[in-house]
Amino acid sequence: MTAEFRIVIEKERIHYLSEAEIGRGDRIIYWMQRSQRAEENHALEYAVAEANRLSLPLVVHFCIDPAYPAAPDRAYRFMLEGLKETAERLKARKILFLPTIGDPIRNIPQGAEDAALVISDRGYLRHERNWRQEIAKRLTCPLIEVETETVVPVRAASLKEEWSAATLRKKITPQIPEYLHTIDEGVLKKNALKIDTPEFAITDIDGVLKKIGLFEPKNPLVADGGRYEAMKRLQAFTGSTIQYYSTQRNDPGKEVTSGLSPYLHFGQISPVEVARAVSGKPGSSAFLEELIVRRELAINFVWYNSRYDLFDGLPDWPKKTLQKHAGDEREYLYTDDELRRAETHDPYWNAAQKEMLLCGRMHNYMRMYWGKKILEWSDTPESGYDRAIVLNDEYELDGRDPNGYTGVAWCFGKHDRPWKERPIFGMVRYMNANGLKRKGDIQGYQERIEEIWKLSIAGDLIVDHR
């Protein structure tokens, strides 16, 4: 590519968060938060184009926030593994990567004192949106947000909270081809590496973790973070596994999923490039339904419903039916600690919880069963909802994510329909162990997880996340 490149970013991805005039600063800043990659990143390429238009160097700021809500040690390590790769790739493009430790609301305005313009990617959760709103108020230059973590931008897909996948699917499907094109990678005219800044050793991951007060050692059972690993998984999935996805993805005894969820969560791979890579492959229709319709239904939920992580954020019908049955007798009730340590009577649920404790993930189908049983084993539906949110956020690599919040909400009736009324669940869909057996080799799944559990240093892995 030459420095004169054509940037193609749909106008629906670009959002002006302030009315300030472009400043007289000596640099453009891209505040990288949600999209932690140097490839297929609309926000980064928009920033490169603006830097070239204004003949300024580009600096990428990243805030490592030790107080990020509910983030476990393993999530920080996974993120830093990805950022190490991103920093190397940015350097090769003559873009300065400048990580700091602290609160973005404080760090970004301070770092932007010499900026003519600040670009950010788009975050969908409550605190991410608040960060951007507060930072926009404190900057003396414009803040432009570029959405790059959806195939179809959230407001282009729908202007309201959707009732179900069916209602969103009708709106989003015709638009998908418009947003699947590749994005040109720009060449920066001004070398930002000449800017004199304090050295920050992002390459020393253990050192950075210690700086922010985290000391959990590398767990070999938890996936490695970073774009290289994400692309390796994508290639393996599209090369052979995807052909089994539509028929075997709900069998806990088989692993035919892509494994890309944590990489999408940290923005280490683009959903657009994943969609392009799988399109046309055998089994791709079922996967694209999950990647685009279901994933972006989750984004729609958290974008339009500010109570996405609360029982009160559910539709009226599941709230009413669950509250009607809140006083029903429960055969089993477990404490928070018993759930956390996978000490229930149900060997399949225990296996799912242990997989999450050990590996920071859980088989996709088991996540639904897991959430349904927490509802069944809690003294109130409200407490069950809260417990599922806490456990998912604290142990899953892809916790603290629209998909996670929507997955818990689904277990309590969100994006579903009323079913036959029964104790505890009311008209909310029920799941039991017999259903797991019909789906596939649940016994094999349980035995495999138990064997890993026995071989691991389990006692060290199930303590609190900090």
Key terms for this structure?
single chain, 466 residues, alpha/beta, Rossmann fold, Serine Threonine Protein Phosphatase 5, Tetratricopeptide repeat, DNA Cyclobutane Dipyrimidine Photolyase, subunit A, domain 3, 3 domains, 6-stranded mixed β-sheet, 21 helices, 46% helix, disordered C terminus, EC 4.1.99.3, DNA damage, deoxyribodipyrimidine photo-lyase activity, Crypto/Photolyase_N_sf
Which percent band covers the strand fraction? Answer: 5-15%
Class by alpha and beta content = alpha/beta
- Runs in which pLDDT lies below 50 for 5 or more consecutive residues are 1-6, 461-466
CATH domain class name of the largest domain: Mainly Alpha
Mean pLDDT: 94
- What order do the helices and strands follow? EEHEHEHEHEHHHHHHHHHHHHHHHHH
Question: How many structural domains does the protein architecture include?
Answer: 3
Distance between the termini: 46 Å
- What count of helical segments does DSSP give? 21
Biggest sheet details: 6 strands, mixed
| CATH architecture tag of the largest domain | Orthogonal Bundle
Task: Spell out the CATH superfamily of the largest domain.
Answer: DNA Cyclobutane Dipyrimidine Photolyase, subunit A, domain 3
Instruction: Choose one word for the global shape.
Output: globular
Order of the strands making up the biggest sheet: 1-6-5-2-3-4
What level of helicity do the residues show? 40-55%
In total, how many beta strands? 6
Radius of gyration: 23 Å
CATH fold-type name of the largest domain? DNA Cyclobutane Dipyrimidine Photolyase, subunit A, domain 3
